[in-house]
Write a structure and sequence with these properties.
The protein is of the alpha/beta class and 223 residues long. Helix content is 20%, strand content 28%. The chain has a single domain, classed as Metallo-beta-lactamase, Chain A (4-Layer Sandwich).
Length: 223
C-alpha cells in the first residue's frame, strides 16, 4: 500500500505548499484521496506534477469540517464527480447538499467505525471527551501491521489510537498530530510521520529519532 502526500504546509521543490493536508492512498485495487487541502487549484497542480490523474481516484474521504481540509472539495469534484465520498455525520446540511449536488455516486455520513474498502477502515466520527471538533481518521491494514492516517487529530491521540486499536496492532501513524503532547503513545510504534498542524515536531523527533519522519507534499511511503 502506497501513501503520497499531495498537500501540506511544506512541499518538496517543484510542488506548492499550502496550509492544509491531503494524501493519496493506493491499495492496489482502490485509490482514495484523504482530504483536499485548502486550495483546490494547488491540490490539482500538485497532483499533476506527481503524475496523479484525479479521474483514477475512486473514493474521497474527508476527516473533518475545517477549511484547510475541505477547501479544495468543489474544485476537485468538478474534475472528478464520479466518486464516492465519506464524511463525518456531523458535517453541516449545507455542505452535505453541496457535495451531493456535485457527485454522480454516493455520499456516506460516517458515525461508527466501518470498512471503506479492502484493507482501509474509518475510526468513525470521534470527539475529545471535553468536546470540540468531530473528526474521523483512517486505518490502513497491511498484513499484521495497521497504520493510522489523521487529518488534524483534534479528538486527541489517545482517543484516536483507542478507536483504531480495535482493528488490531498499531504499527505507525501519519498526518497532522495537532498540539498533542501524549508522547507516550508512540512508544511501541515503528513509524511516526508528522506533518501539517503538528506543533511539537522537534520534541517528537528528539524522543523518537529512529521512528520519526517529517512529511511534506511530495513525500511517499510504501507500507
Amino acid at each position: 500500500m502506497k501513501v503520497t502526500i499531495v498537500y501540506d504546509n511544506e512541499a518538496q521543490e517543484g510542488l506548492q505548499s499550502g496550509w492544509g493536508f491531503a494524501c493519496l492512498i493506493e491499495t492496489g485495487s482502490n485509490n482514495i484521496l484523504f482530504d483536499t487541502g485548502w486550495d483546490g487549484h494547488v491540490l490539482l497542480e500538485n497532483m499533476d506534477k506527481l503524475s496523479i490523474d484525479p479521474k483514477t481516484i475512486d473514493t474521497l474521504v474527508l476527516s473533518h469540517q475545517h477549511w484547510d481540509h475541505i477547501g479544495g472539495v468543489t474544485t476537485f469534484l468538478n474534475r472528478d464527480p464520479d466518486i464516492d465520498v465519506y464524511i463525518p455525520s456531523s458535517f453541516s446540511p449545507r455542505l452535505k447538499k453541496e457535495i451531493t449536488s456535485r457527485i454522480h455516486k454516493k455520499l456516506y455520513g460516517i458515525g461508527s467505525p466501518q470498512k471503506i474498502c479492502d484493507h482501509v477502515y474509518t475510526t468513525g466520527e470521534l470527539e475529545n471527551p471535553g468536546g470540540g471538533i468531530k473528526e474521523q481518521s483512517l486505518i490502513l491494514e497491511c498484513g499484521s501491521d495497521n497504520y493510522i492516517l489523521t487529518g488534524c487529530a483534534h479528538p486527541g491521540l489517545l482517543v484516536i489510537i483507542e478507536a483504531a486499536a480495535s482493528f488490531g496492532n498499531i504499527t505507525g501513524i501519519m498526518g497532522g498530530l495537532h498540539d498533542s503532547q501524549e508522547y507516550g503513545v508512540f512508544k511501541d510504534m515503528e513509524f511516526i510521520g508528522a506533518g501539517h498542524c503538528t506543533s511539537h515536531k522537534d520534541v517528537i523527533r528528539k524522543m523518537y529519532p529512529k521512528k520519526f519522519q517529517k512529511i511534506f507534499a511530495g513525500y511517499s511511503v510504501d507500507f
